[in-house]
Amino acid sequence: MPRAKKNKEAGEVFKKLLKEKEFSQYKLEQVTGLDKSVISKIATGQTANPTPTTLEKIADALQIELGELTRIFAQSTVQSQHSATNIEPQESVSEIPISNNSDFVGREEAIAHLNMLIEKCNTKAIGIYGKGGIGKTTLAYHYFETQKLEYLELQVGMEAQYMTSVKSWVKDQLRYQFKEEPQQDFMGTLEQLKRNLQNKPVGILIDNLETALDENGKFKKDHIDYLELFVRVLNAPNIKSITLITSRERLNEAKLSFVEAYQLPELDESAWRKFLSRFNINVNSPAMSAIHKSYGGNALCMKVLREPIQTKYNGDLEAYWQDNKEFLLKGNIKDLVASQFDRIQDNNIDTYNLLCRLGLYTYQKIPYIPIIGLLCLLWDIEEGKKRHIIDSLEQSYLLEFRKERVENISDSWQDIPDLHFPPAQGWIFHLEQLQNKVKILVFQPAGYSLHKFIWEEANSRLNLSNQSIDYLLLSLKEQVDKLLKSSERSQSFLNFAYQKQQNLFCNFPYKQACIRSTYIELAIEIFGNLADGIDTFELENAGASNFMDMHSSIELDISFEIVQDINHILTFLYCLEEKSTFWEVSSTNDLSEIDFALEILPGIKRLLTHKLEINPELHKGLHYIQSLLPDNVEKIGFFRNCLRVYKPELVPISRKIPILSLKEVKDICECGSQLRENIEEFEEWFKINGQEWLYKIAEVMSNLPRINIVADWQLSEQEKQQLRQYYDANRLLVDCLNSASDEVRSHIEDTLLLPIAEIEKRPFKN
Question: C-alpha distances in angstroms, 367 versus 46, 354, 445?
């Protein structure tokens, strides 16, 4: 191979090494003290035979073995006997490197998008944006390679003190790439570069541009020369160059509107699978999706994780994840994330504080944070600046925004067994409303989020700050409470919910904020889960029953204790409807209608004791229904209940509802002949009168007076929107409470969703 070409190859390997070590040529010059012409000649392939002293200085700066660096240039020092006569002429622009195919996966759409912008839109400059490690630079290299396009490379540098000077870079390109002596003035050199770029298609890569930008995406005053390069050269009408710019932050210069923006998406899971499987890693593990989601599809994370999974865990992805899922930040990944946090901290402390405070949220039950959640975190910022700070953080690509969307459910969703509910009977559960609520569940609201490995750094820095978590949560609570402070009507509604909570739920077994939450949910017509976050309702046993009783108590506007008896009746009535979701319980356990009917009676009797607290019509109807029954029914029910309590072994263990059927009672020897006769008489009565009796109960229960909070309060759309924001903010606050001390958690839970007047009566006492 001719020496000139070997020199070029060595130079390209050397430049790749600089990129891996995050060193620009300028930074290397500063650290080693070597003349910039020496570094430039090595990198551009004009020489691949550095002196031992030069090699030693470079190895020390890059912190690599001297032998490793020597091997890069070794092949170029072995000259054939014909080398002197066969030297190829030096080309004006460096050759492109050969990409490592194993490192480049899943970017077909990105390449196609770049082609579309360049070929169909005649775009000359494209900004490739995204968080660190997502693969911006790799994409740019690969694009130039696939287009077989030679390119110039401007490494801006990762740190401000080592930034590449545009003036020096332009002169170097003229001197070493185009073999021209640069003029003395900067504008003259820009004209020289522009003329050279008119001769042939050339790629230009400007890497890590964010270092030159301020918090607003504009060039810093010290680096305004970059703006001149863009305007005077890269957008000139006759040049044939294509410029790709990589940046972690969005370029926002009005004069650079010609730069098309392309936000590079994260690698999808299939790309991760394809990459890792090349290294004999078992990607058919349940952990594959979890690890991809936690790292947000980040390309650098994918490459970093490959080595320990492959070598330390023999390709066992599941074993690696089980050992490491609680600590995502390590090695190069931690350094990558930390550098992004440090840059934001240096440029804009308010944006940095917001980023760290987002570490309060857990993103478990609430994966996407509505805008109100971010605004409330900025309690120490004046209102006019809050949106700007959020926009600034979003432009760093650490904070991600997802638009509102609705899942595509077919019109035949009612035919899906898991989503099917029978038509409402008018006297139980309002199933038509429940059907609508099932549809609502597929709606995904807009919101912001941090990927888990970003959140881990935010949470870590938050805990290391000089402000305690308790202080932050109390500050957040105060800000949330202020959302409705100026609205008299909203405060009246909160007071209404508070008064109802006191009057109707004195013996409610869960936290009082649950009731207040449910009133708000009904008012803004959502199928919410704030109550679930305040105090978990188990979806079995007494938890689900109490949850339904709470909703019924609000709808019927009666005390929790009374509604328990009403729902006791309704539940067993519902089991008699063959199309009901409870019918399977009755039929599979061989429980007859007469057995369920006997379960209704205790509820009727208890309700009649609340004569002064229930509707007179309801009391009259229930009393009439009870009078229709034979006199011996109460004795039958009492004996059966005694058997169920004192001899539970008689109840078949297969039954979900522990009912001892009358048929089984008759077969028990302790029953006695008289009780057996009474049961048989009741069975005969029920054959004749049972169905009519049950329908009379259904009719009475269907006439229960109900309230409609939405109709009664007639809240305007604006008031509903304010309540919704208030609800969402409280929901996020509840999501943070596991990090609070017991004292702060208790105080916040006790004062959640209260009117301001009541909150002021309950100041936190440390």
Answer: 54, 17, 10
Which helix H or strand E contains 44, and what residues bound it? none
Count other C-beta atoms under 10 Å from residue 143's C-beta: 23
Each residue's pLDDT tens digit, 413-423: 344 444 333 33
> Rounded to whole angstroms, how far apart are CA atoms 3 and 37?
20
How many other β-carbons are positioned within 10 Å of the β-carbon of residue 63?
7
User: Do 62 and 90 touch, CB atoms closer than 8 A?
Assistant: no
Between CA 318 and CA 246 the distance in angstroms is 34
Neighbours of 61 (CB within 10 A): 19
CA atoms of 73 and 52, how far apart (whole Å): 11
Q: How far apart are CA 153 and CA 649, in angstroms?
A: 83
Q: Do 27 and 157 form a contact (C-beta atoms < 8 A)? A: yes
Q: Which two tokens stand for residue 19?
A: 């990129």
Distance CA 253, CA 231 (A): 11
User: From the centroid of its chain, how far is CA 704?
Assistant: 43
Residues 567, 552 contacting (CB under 8 angstroms): yes
Per DSSP, the chain holds a count of helices (H) and strands (E) of: 36, 9
- The token duo for 66 is 């001297």
With residue 514 as reference, give the H or E element that holds it: helix 512-523
Q: pLDDT tens digits, residue range 173-203?
A: 999 999 999 998 999 999 999 999 998 899 9
Q: Token pair for residue 64?
A: 């690599």
**CA 490 – CA 68 distance, rounded (Å):** 71
pTM of the predicted structure, to 2 decimals? 0.73
